[in-house]
Design a protein that fits this description.
mainly alpha; 79% helix; globular
Length: 106
């Protein structure tokens, strides 16, 4: 039951993320580059604050950070040309493929 609830929470979070991004970018309140920079910077700041209470960051790499940036930038720019349904399908699909691939990788 715990796995089902965690999966449902993750899917709801991804859907909420899509709606919030579309609201910010679709109404012209922000451009894709500034939005991506603000999004990743604020996420990094929150993770830094959270990790300080547990003794600091214990991993990560520049290639992983670059992959996250490419992912976030691609979706920020895609919000201008993709419908919400197609964007959500691509987002959910790419996350699932990544998680399954990481799980079965040697």
């Amino acid at each position: 039951m715990r796995v089902v609830l965690a999966t449902a929470a993750a899917l709801i979070a991804f859907a909420a993320n899509s709606l919030l991004c579309r609201a910010a970018l679709g109404a012209g309140r922000a451009d894709a580059a500034s939005f991506t920079l603000l999004r990743l910077s604020s996420g990094a700041a929150v993770l830094l604050l959270l990790s300080r209470g547990t003794g600091g960051a214990r991993g990560g790499s520049w290639p992983s950070a670059l992959a996250l940036f490419v992912y976030a930038a691609a979706f920020s720019f895609a919000y201008f040309s993709l419908s919400a349904g197609v964007g959500a399908l691509l987002l959910f699909g790419s996350v699932q493929v990544t998680m399954i691939g990481a799980g079965i990788a040697p």
